[in-house]
Automatic annotation (TrEMBL):
Superkingdom per UniProt: Bacteria
MF terms (GO), sorted A to Z: endonuclease activity
Ranges in a coiled coil: none
One Pfam family from the record: DUF559
DUF559 domain ranges (all copies): 11-115
Lineage: Bacteria, Pseudomonadati, Pseudomonadota, Alphaproteobacteria, Sphingomonadales
Organism for this UniProt entry: Sphingorhabdus arenilitoris
Name of the protein: Endonuclease domain-containing protein
Keywords associated with the record: Endonuclease, Hydrolase, Nuclease
């Protein structure tokens, strides 16, 4: 079961898609190309929350955390958010923004490895095998 998407969350997500932070923008330049055949969404609404990036097939939220996530009540808020998502079987992978700035490709490679590990764990076929499958229209002789 997927969490509801309140209209306020959808509106906020659309706004945030236009205002990515520098690390989010850098990572999105790689993830938007569907590396390894895996589709990612940016600033995806999930209930009252907006996920920086989301891979639905792997039930994985990817959060790029800057220094603000370590301050004040933010660690507690993040823990509550992660628990709320976990109730919907969505796990959160937290990536320090400084790591994205230092080596975006390495971070993206790590994310893809996590996605592939999760898909293997779930018993889902690799993306490369899904794309090579014959479509029903080809079997029926339709074009």
């Amino acid at each position: 079961m997927r969490p509801n998407k309140p209209s306020a969350s959808i509106k906020r997500a659309k706004k945030l898609r236009r205002e990515l932070t520098k690390p989010e923008f850098m990572l999105w330049q790689i993830l938007r190309q569907s590396p390894g055949g895996h589709k990612f969404r940016k600033q995806h609404p999930a209930g009252p929350f907006i996920l920086d990036f989301f891979c639905a097939r792997a039930n994985l939220a990817i959060e790029v955390d800057g220094m603000a996530h370590d301050m004040g009540g933010n660690p507690e808020r993040d823990a509550k958010r992660d628990a709320w998502l976990a109730a919907y079987r969505i796990d959160t992978l937290r990536v320090p923004a400084v790591d994205v700035l230092r080596d975006t490709t390495e971070v993206a490679t790590s994310i893809i490895a996590t996605v592939e590990d999760r898909l293997t764990e779930f018993g889902k076929a690799p993306a490369s095998l899904r794309h090579d499958a014959t479509s029903p229209s080809q079997v029926d002789g339709e074009e």
